[in-house]
Amino acid sequence: MSLPKIYTDKTAARRHLEKLQWPDGPFCPHCGNADPGRITLLKGKSTRPGVYKCRECEKPFSVTVGTVFERSHIPLHKWLYAAHLLTASKKGISSHQLHRMLGVTYKTAWFMAHRIREGMRPASMTPMGGAGKTVEIDETTSGKLEGAPARMHKGGTQFRNIVLTLVEHGGSARSFHIDGTTMATLVPIIRANISRESAIMTDEAPWYTAVGKEFASHDAVMHTAKEYVRGNVTTNTVEGYYSIFKRGMKGIYQHCSEKHLHRYLAEARWSAFAASALLIGGLTRPTSPRQLARHFLRWRSRRG
Fold first, then answer.
1. Three-state secondary-structure class, residue 249
2. How many angstroms separate the CA atoms of 19 and 88, rounded?
3. b/e map 97-124, b = 16+ CB within 10 Å
4. Which residues pair with 218 in a beta bridge?
5. Short-list 74, 168, 162, 172, CA closest to 116
6. How far apart, in whole angstroms, are the C-alpha atoms of residue 95 and residue 121?
7. Do 79 and 278 meet the contact criterion of CB atoms below 8 Å apart?
8. Is the preceding peptide bond at 286 cis, omega within 30 degrees of 0?
């Protein structure tokens, strides 16, 4: 089966992004000028295809300005193909696999994968949930802290990275790399990311008891008593999210340093969100090129 042309031809890839980014014609990302009479397509021999000049601010621009593809010498069609591969893989795809499929060096593939993961981080985060909606909360460990001893007690949380995740039923997920499970660490995150009108579900961990009173309802399952479901009360959704995340970390990536963990969490969040959105929309994987490209067309706001 042949690949779509946008994954094999840089001109087709550029035109595809221009169609998505500029449905009504090009506009300047520097000053916002959209007057076609004040925007000129540059056609010099030394000018790259697709470069325009704004006659309002006198700055050149192309469709990649302000996106994850900006200021890269890697052909644009390889960027689009890498984004497709990374987002269509439920548990992720290794940089070694990317470098073989894209025909780039391992170092380049690693750079591309991390930039795409960075682009998966949401530009803004309004509170999850709301009236009549439910959010599950749980924490887990992932990998070792830098400097941790080689041999560690199995099942302990000491010297391990701790992750807090919030999963809305029928909605999105958010994960945070946190320093510990104290109330001082967890409560501000929960308050800032979940609407007070939401119902929340957790396990019996004591740090959820007080903050749970601030929401519409708080129900907990008793894992220590081997209780995992009680009527509609469960944390199986967030546990399933962790299951897929850990299978990817152990089976695909195998190792993740502490400083890069937040990017892998962004990838897991994107995968869960995309799967949920596609399921609700009646679609199936892999995500279409149009859906993928549209998401990565706003890079600058994510860097702030």
1. helix
2. 22
3. ebbeebebeeebbbebbebbbbbbbeee
4. 200
5. 74
6. 19
7. no
8. yes
Whether 110 shows a pLDDT value over 90: the answer reads yes
- Residue 160 forms beta bridges with which residues? 144
Question: Among candidates 58, 198, 66, which has minimal Cα distance to 135?
Answer: 198
CB of 63 closer than 8 Å to CB of 21: yes
pLDDT computed for residue 178 by the predictor: 92
Neighbouring CB atoms inside 10 A of 5's CB total 13
| Angle value at C-alpha 256, between 250 and 259, nearest 5 degrees | 155
Q: For 95-112, what is the mean pLDDT?
A: 96
Extract the runs of DSSP E, i.e. beta strands, from 58-213. Answer: 60-61, 134-144, 160-168, 173-178, 199-203
Query: Structure tokens of 291?
Result: 């859906």
CATH 3.40.50.720 applies to domain 134-282 = no
CA atoms of 198 and 181, how far apart (whole Å): 22
- Domains of the chain, by residue range, sit at 134-282
pLDDT at site 256: 84
Q: Residue type at 146?
A: E
